[in-house]
Amino acid sequence: MSEKPGFFKRLKALSLPQKQLFATALCQRMYPNYQLFAEVCEFGDAKLLDTVLNLLWQSLYDRKLKLNLEMYLEKLDEITPDPENFDVYGAYPAMDAIVAVSALLGALQSKIEEDITNISKLSSSTVANYIEAISDTDLEDDALDDFIYGHEAMVEERELQAWLLDLVEDNPEMDADFIKALRKELVSQGVSNIGISAQ
């Protein structure tokens, strides 16, 4: 499933801080998927994930903040659900939410910028898998791709990522007020990429 023409080209052309902001915003949007799962299945630690996300946002405007990337990667690994151990679908999007944040931390540690842009694909694949899981259809291959691509949840996902890319491109200076306002907006929406509400 390809995004609109040039989407990934534009994403790759962003500066490292811009890519980090884009990815952090997507991770924030995936957070309710983990939060609800942790609550319902009494597994893991949503507060820890929330703390790591807060630090990622803060590190974008507070240059003095040094993240202990290795420590947080280890801690996140400990609270990552293995879907095979749960009989609820929610384990998959919950796992994706942790994988996305871990991928971002790992990318900042290794300075591999492509790993940051891959979080865009990870968020979209969470949505695609969700659509497949909830749909009562026997479609295969191209027909299934078309169905997923045209689904309301995927349309919303693509629109949000396009909006986010435009916003980040248009604000290269990314001052603290801009970053805080974006975070506030995503948190106040309180809805994940698959429509899970944090409230």
3D structure, described in words:
It is built from nine helices and no strands. The protein is mostly helical and 199 residues long. The chain has a single domain (7-187), classed as YP_001051499.1 domain like (YP_001051499.1 fold like, Up-down Bundle). Helix 2 (16-41) runs antiparallel to helix 3 (46-61) and helix 2 runs antiparallel to helix 5 (91-110). The longest helix has 26 residues, at 16-41. It is globular and about 50 Å long. The chain starts with 6 loop residues before the first helix and ends in a 10-residue tail after the last helix. This is YjaG family protein.
Order of helices and strands: HHHHHHHHH
Q: pLDDT average, as an integer?
A: 94
Would you state the CATH class? Answer: Mainly Alpha
Query: What is the CATH T-level topology?
Result: YP_001051499.1 fold like
In the CATH hierarchy, what is the architecture at level 2? Up-down Bundle
Overall tally of domains: 1
Low-confidence stretches: none
How far the N terminus sits from the C terminus, by CA atoms, comes to 31 Å
Q: What is the general shape? A: globular
- Beta fraction: under 5%
In this structure, how is the largest beta sheet organized?
A: none
Structural classification:
mainly alpha
Give the strand tally: 0
Helical residue percent?
A: over 70%
Number of alpha- plus pi-helical segments = 9
**What is the CATH superfamily label?**
YP_001051499.1 domain like
Radius of gyration: 16 Å
InterPro entries: DUF416, YP001051499.1-like_dom_sf
Protein name: YjaG family protein
Pfam family, one: DUF416
Organism: Shewanella cyperi
